[in-house]
């Protein structure tokens, strides 16, 4: 990997023919990267989303079937979003909190839907990685992974995993099919955004194997009252600056709430951009949504966060995290000012409240 990573593709372009030949060519190398003499650990990114949960589950399924091993799946952070919790519980995916995993006990460490040193997982930087499979932009450190498969022209890592399962001749179980369908749907917003022909083809192949009533229960979970309370408070503090809306969740129960609020704000009529900030366990989290097709949300949030923290994302959705030791207010002001500047607005602008008083 040189100095110039390929630009993030707003419209992933992988075809199902590419996907099939990639998987057939790489399957044996992927399996060869596993040390079957020792336990195997698969890691999602922190606060795992449906794509990372589904693709970790798929990798575990693939390795169990082909190598007769029983990998564990571990995650950092929390599983906060109601639909993600429902996914784990309803599908019975066993996920271990990273803090409970003794890394030394494992001979194979596999990262999925993320890469080394992205800042969105909690593994030590010196952990020797055997496998990394991802669809986010390639990181230079990923070159050191024994088996790295990073393909940015796919809408979901779940899609990449589907083609490995197909190449391995494995029949999808109902649960795995349901998981993969949710993984692809959520990363591509129902195949409407950032999806390639390879994603669509995988989706159509998986669909007949999935349990649609189970899928509906996962996608429409019950929401705890405290989420509404947190949203209420954040909406009252939200401000519109021309084509952008900025919200502050304050201290969030879990970082996934930011993504949920950002999704909720994204369709706001006059705002092409929604930026949500919130704090959780000594970190400031950012979640960005964009309807501006001319600008990559991942690149935008990277420009905003700069040296302060780590950032990443796709064309229309992106996130970032910044460690904070003291008063977070100045950092939040800096982030807000940079965001407004990037949009060509006054960095010190005060904007207008999103929610007007009843007597206005
Ligand atoms: Mn993903």
Low-confidence stretches: 1-9
Shape: globular
CATH architecture of the largest domain: Alpha-Beta Complex
CATH superfamily of the largest domain: inorganic pyrophosphatase (n-terminal core)
Mean pLDDT: 93
CA-CA gap between termini: 56 Å
Structural class of the helix and strand makeup? Answer: alpha/beta
Radius of gyration computed on alpha carbons: 20 Å
- Order of secondary-structure elements: HEHEHEEEEHHHHHEEHEEHEEHE
Number of discrete helical segments:
11
Give the biggest beta sheet.
7 strands, mixed
**The top level CATH class name of the largest domain:** Alpha Beta
> What is the share of helical residues?
25-40%
**How are strands sequenced across the largest beta sheet?**
11-12-10-9-8-7-13
Number of strands: 13
Strand % is 15-25%
Total domains:
2
Hetero ligands: manganese (II) ion
CATH topology type of the largest domain:
inorganic pyrophosphatase (n-terminal core)
What does this structure look like?
With 360 residues, the chain is an alpha/beta fold. It has two domains: 16-219, Alpha-Beta Complex (inorganic pyrophosphatase (n-terminal core)); 226-353, Diaminopimelate Epimerase, Chain A, domain 1. It is 37% helix and 18% strand. It contains eleven helices and 13 strands. The chain has helices spanning 16-32, 50-67, 82-91, 157-167, 174-187, 197-206, 212-219, 225-237, 256-265, 297-305, 329-342, and strands at 40-43, 72-75, 96-97, 108-112, 131-134, 147-150, 239-241, 244-251, 273-280, 283-290, 310-313, 317-323, 352-353. Strand 7 and strand 8 form a beta hairpin. The longest helix has 18 residues, at 50-67. Mean pLDDT is 93; it is low at 1-9. Bound molecules: manganese (II) ion. Manganese (II) ion binds at residues 51, 113, 135, 156-157, 187.
């Amino acid at each position: 990997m040189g100095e110039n990573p390929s630009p993030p593709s707003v419209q992933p372009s992988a075809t199902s023919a590419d996907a099939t030949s990639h998987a057939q060519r790489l399957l044996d190398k992927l399996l060869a990267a596993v040390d079957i003499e020792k336990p195997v650990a698969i890691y999602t990114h922190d606060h795992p989303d449906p794509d990372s949960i589904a693709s970790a589950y798929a990798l575990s399924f693939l390795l169990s079937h082909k190598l007769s091993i029983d990998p564990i799946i571990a995650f950092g952070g929390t599983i906060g979003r109601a639909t993600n919790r429902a996914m784990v519980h309803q599908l019975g995916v066993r996920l271990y909190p990273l803090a409970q995993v003794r890394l030394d006990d494992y001979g194979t460490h596999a990262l999925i839907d993320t890469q080394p040193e992205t800042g969105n997982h909690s593994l030590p930087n010196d952990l020797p990685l055997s496998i990394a499979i991802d669809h986010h932009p390639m990181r230079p450190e990923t070159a050191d992974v024994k088996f790295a498969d990073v393909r940015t022209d796919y809408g979901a890592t779940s899609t990449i995993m589907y083609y490995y399962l197909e190449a391995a001749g494995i029949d999808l179980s109902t649960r795995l099919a349901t998981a993969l369908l949710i993984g692809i749907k959520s990363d591509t917003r129902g195949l409407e955004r950032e999806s390639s022909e390879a994603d669509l083809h995988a989706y159509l192949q998986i669909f007949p194997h999935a349990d649609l009533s189970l899928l509906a229960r996962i996608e429409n979970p019950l929401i705890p009252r405290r989420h509404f309370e947190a949203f209420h408070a954040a909406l009252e503090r939200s401000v519109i600056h021309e084509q952008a809306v900025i919200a502050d969740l304050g201290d969030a129960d879990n970082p996934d709430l930011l993504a949920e609020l950002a999704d909720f704000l994204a369709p706001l009529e006059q705002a092409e951009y929604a930026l949500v900030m919130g704090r959780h366990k000594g970190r400031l989290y950012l979640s960005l949504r964009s309807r501006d097709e001319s600008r990559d949300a991942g690149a935008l949030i990277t420009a905003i966060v700069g040296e302060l923290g780590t950032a990443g994302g796709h064309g229309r959705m992106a996130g970032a995290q910044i460690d904070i030791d003291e008063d977070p207010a100045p950092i939040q002001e800096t982030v807000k000012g940079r965001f407004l500047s990037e949009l060509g607005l006054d960095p010190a602008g005060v904007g207008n409240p999103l929610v007007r008083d009843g007597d206005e």
